[in-house]
Amino acid sequence: MNSVHGLLAASVISIQNSCFIYPACQNCFSRLMLDSRRFNCLKCGCTGEAKDASYRYRLSLKIADTNDLFDITVFGSCLDPFFGVTAENLQRYIQDLNQLSGETNTESSTRALVQAVETCFIGKRFIFGV
């Protein structure tokens, strides 16, 4: 699954969603189902306490080379250098920020994160392994 079949130099046109971090199963990397106290992986059946859930990056982009448009999704730790922290640490930082500010609606922190990601990626050219 991790083999690269080719390289594509392309520019980021847009960010396709605002959810850059997801709770991920440590066994199969699938999205976990979380409730207030527990997590459950629907794919492999892994369970545990919600506070112990791991997080991964998932960045969906629309990109363009000189000829075509592509929708791609970039997963995992290859995004750590762009965000400056692991997905797990960023998730903790966002949770702590929301708690300190007393935010019950996380819309403002989500909007700020989306704006920062758009500034860092849109209009920039990258080489993608596809």
UniProtKB/TrEMBL annotation:
<feature type="domain" description="Replication factor A C-terminal">
    <location>
        <begin position="9"/>
        <end position="95"/>
    </location>
</feature>
<dbReference type="InterPro" id="IPR013955">
    <property type="entry name" value="Rep_factor-A_C"/>
</dbReference>
<protein>
    <submittedName>
        <fullName>DDIAS protein</fullName>
    </submittedName>
</protein>
<dbReference type="GO" id="GO:1902230">
    <property type="term" value="P:negative regulation of intrinsic apoptotic signaling pathway in response to DNA damage"/>
</dbReference>
<dbReference type="GO" id="GO:0005737">
    <property type="term" value="C:cytoplasm"/>
</dbReference>
<dbReference type="InterPro" id="IPR012340">
    <property type="entry name" value="NA-bd_OB-fold"/>
</dbReference>
<dbReference type="Pfam" id="PF08646">
    <property type="entry name" value="Rep_fac-A_C"/>
</dbReference>
<dbReference type="InterPro" id="IPR043522">
    <property type="entry name" value="DDIAS"/>
</dbReference>
<dbReference type="GO" id="GO:0005634">
    <property type="term" value="C:nucleus"/>
</dbReference>
